[in-house]
Amino acid sequence: MDKILRQALLYDFYGELLTEHQKSIYEDFVLNDYSLSEIGEDRKISRQGVYDIIKRCDKLLNGYEEKLHLVQKFLMAKEQVAKIHELASEILKAEGAPDEATEYLRQIENISNGILEEM
Amino acid sequence: MDKILRQALLYDFYGELLTEHQKSIYEDFVLNDYSLSEIGEDRKISRQGVYDIIKRCDKLLNGYEEKLHLVQKFLMAKEQVAKIHELASEILKAEGAPDEATEYLRQIENISNGILEEM
Known about the structure:
Chains A, B: InterPro entries: RNA_pol_sigma_r3/r4-like (IPR013324), UPF0122 (IPR007394), UPF0122_fam_protein (IPR054831), WH-like_DNA-bd_sf (IPR036388). Two copies of one chain form a homodimer. With 119 residues, chain A is an all-alpha fold.
């Protein structure tokens, strides 16, 4: 997985366990795509200082994932729900699905879609 | 939700963030159903001491949930996957499902069942 995407995912799951200061800097770097220098200028800290804080956040977030594995679990569940969504859509696309099943299949499509949007 | 069930769920999600000592005592109380006195005897700590550790663990685990809401998210997703499983089973039970759909529906049943077992 792309490093920034992984950082964003870890932040999405465990970010609330960081301090406000850490969150603000990590967000600017990972989500808002600012450079170390830009982040440092705004806050009057050195580029190296910003770098150290981001490394520290990476370490904390990865530590939570190593202990809890919740990102991994969510990604696996998400993949499986996507498969369900795909299967339901395939059946609906095929001819000959009986009317009583169609309504249920649309519900399966909607529910799986809802889960994917929340995740 | 039943208090012990909630404690067990919170422990299942965030237990790895407790110390080994806290985990061992919390497990004996919540999962193994030992009394405060029994837990204290084994470890040569007072009943009150055990009680304080359990309260401390409750507070930590609830604090993680207040920040991360992962138990809540998982429970909601689980409920929705259970609904998908039920719908797929209903269609399969009904007469007239065409053969090409049956295979896909069985896959939906299996995948949703797999997700529920993992969660």
